[in-house]
Write a structure and sequence with these properties.
heterodimer, A: four-stranded antiparallel beta sheet, 9 strands, B: alpha/beta, five-stranded mixed beta sheet
Chain lengths: ~400, ~170
């Protein structure tokens, strides 16, 4: 009698998938419906920005680095500028630092709302997706009024910022924050009480505090598991020294906790923005800074919407950096997916993936459902999403 | 704990293996260790739960020829950044181009695999016993032995034209 052959059934998803807007590849090994292994393949939109930094001067680099990401563009420029300013021994004026924080928090709001919409969409809750993206327009309009641009605000310059607040903009921001606060109350209610939504999030993808440490998770993903990890609090930078934030954590560590933490962070952002508008002091918004940066090396860490963003910058005393290393938050949260996915249903994968708020420009990726046997099955992201929704119907 | 106390406690854990050290910023401590002691140093931090691994930064130190025609061979440096609140300890290891071998730390810190794969691909480190050596960011068709973040690399077209010139010769 021949022994039945043990075959692995691998489900590859991506790299091209219509639902997520950028390419990435995931491979889930499944036993029936249960995922037994997960792997990631990145690099489909690798652009070699670190190398490109070594051929451009600091000012050009700042504008280029802002384009690492189309969602959290401001934090990249801020991390770089803060590092270079530290190397040059320049301190931006307090008003400039406050405006940097203001832009960071506005960006966090737009990023969290964008994520919330995408997550609702993956759960098959498209009404919620439409609502959040409509509300997100409020903050996008504010960013446009403030800087003239919706996506790459380019608020920073070396030694300060180039946009200033006036009464009219302040008014618009205040009104916007009030409106969004009210809307967030509603979203909080949906996330914590809606049965269909809870069915997709409660008790799913639970990440323990120990695993967070071991896997090096950052941002809301880590904070949802009770880790006190927020660079704005642990190592206050820029205007966060004058305008401290409260750290938001949750103990349960499941998908629901990740929703709750992000929504609570929105409240904290609204509060901080209103405080800045109230307390911001008049004054200069730039200082002069030389183009040549003294030799040395610096580490600059900031809290992006997705977690800790890390920059290492080495200067050789010229106008061009010797080395720029970027570690984006999505990259270290990837480890949690391959860890948490095991033992879950394939139908849970879209929500699990979206739970860490993966950013494709931070580090690109896709999902592939591959089969060793004849019953090969290729699933695109849309297919997987529909599969998940059907499964839970 | 204060940042300075955290750095002190980290320094105490690593004392045995330190070859040289530097404090580039007040919240940082850079420690150079030899490749043989490297893993014990990392293990000491991990076992005592001193912070978490932020990332591995690779650095290329190209060969230099001084006026007397003495050539300093090219080196690669790996920096393992560990963060504990505001404190950052960087464990630094230097290896020559000819033998760029460093022990993997994936058995201690599983999430390091992604940074190790990046270091192997972009700089050509040889990470001994690392669990996954597949390509992470570069295309599958990328030529073997070409490491884009080394200073000698300009772009693939340059590489092709130099090989063409060589074959024409």
């Amino acid at each position: 009698m021949t022994k039945p052959k043990v075959e692995k059934f691998i489900v590859p998803i991506g790299p091209q998938h219509p639902a997520l807007k950028e390419p990435g590849n995931f491979e889930f090994t499944v036993d029936g419906e249960i995922v037994t292994d997960a792997a990631v393949r990145l690099g489909f939109v690798h652009r070699g920005i670190e190398k490109a930094c070594e051929t451009r001067n600091y000012i050009q680099d700042m504008y280029m680095l802002e384009r690492v990401c189309g969602i959290c563009s401001h934090v990249h420029a801020t991390a770089f500028v803060l590092g270079v300013e530290k190397l040059a021994g320049v301190q931006a004026p307090p008003r400039a630092e406050a405006i940097r924080v203001l832009a960071s928090e506005l960006e966090r709001i737009h990023s969290h709302l964008l994520w919330f919409g995408v997550a609702a969409h993956e759960a098959g809750f498209d009404t919620l997706f439409m609502y959040t993206w409509r509300d997100r327009e409020v903050v996008m309009d504010i960013l446009e009024t403030l800087s003239g641009s919706r996506v790459h605000y380019s608020v920073n310059v070396m030694g300060g910022v180039k946009v200033d607040l006036d009464d009219k903009t302040s008014d618009q921001i205040k009104k916007g924050m009030d409106f969004l606060e009210e809307r967030t109350e509603y979203y909080m209610k949906v996330v914590t009480t809606d049965e269909t939504f809870l069915g997709r999030t409660r008790g799913i993808g639970t990440l323990s505090r120990e695993r967070v440490d071991l896997l090096g998770a950052v941002g809301p993903t880590a904070r949802a598991s009770g880790a006190q990890r927020d660079i704005r609090v642990n190592a206050p930078y820029s205007g966060y020294k004058d305008f401290p934030v409260k750290i938001v954590t949750d103990e349960t560590g499941d998908l629901e906790a990740r929703f709750v933490v992000r929504l609570k962070e929105l409240y904290e952002s609204y509060r901080l923005i209103k405080e800045i508008l109230e307390k911001i002091q008049p004054g200069e918004i730039t200082t002069r800074m030389k183009r040549k940066i003294p030799a040395g090396e610096v580490i600059s860490r900031v809290e992006a919407p997705r977690g800790e963003l890390f920059y290492y910058i080495k200067s050789n005393g010229t106008e061009i950096p010797e080395r720029v290393k970027i570690r984006t938050p999505s990259l270290c949260n990837w480890g949690t997916i391959t860890d948490v996915a095991v033992g879950h249903k394939l139908a849970d994968m879209p929500m699990l993936l979206v739970g860490i708020d993966p950013c494709f420009s931070c580090n690109d990726r896709m999902v592939e459902v591959r089969s060793g046997s004849q019953t090969s099955q290729i699933m695109n992201w849309d297919g997987l999403r529909k599969y998940g929704i059907e499964y839970y119907r | 704990m204060e940042t300075s106390e955290l750095l002190e406690s980290g320094k105490f854990l690593l004392e045995k293996w330190v070859e040289s050290e530097n404090t580039p910023e007040e919240n940082r401590l850079d420690i150079w260790v030899s490749t043989t002691n490297f893993k014990s140093a990392v293990q000491s931090l991990v076992e005592n739960h001193w912070g978490y691994l932020v990332t591995i930064t690779g650095m290329d130190i190209p060969p230099v020829t001084d006026p007397d025609d003495n050539t300093q061979p090219g080196q690669l440096e790996a920096m393992y950044h560990f963060a504990n609140e505001a404190a950052i300890i960087t464990i630094r290891v230097k290896v020559p181009y000819s033998c760029p071998q460093i022990e993997t730390i994936c058995d201690l810190i599983p999430s390091a695999t992604i940074y190790e794969r990046e270091a192997m691909e972009l700089f050509g480190f040889d990470l001994l016993n690392t669990p996954n050596t597949e390509k992470l960011v570069l295309p599958d068709s990328w030529p073997e032995g070409v490491y884009p973040l080394r200073k000698s690399f300009t772009n693939l077209q340059d590489l092709e034209s130099t090989t063409k010139e060589q074959t024409n010769d």
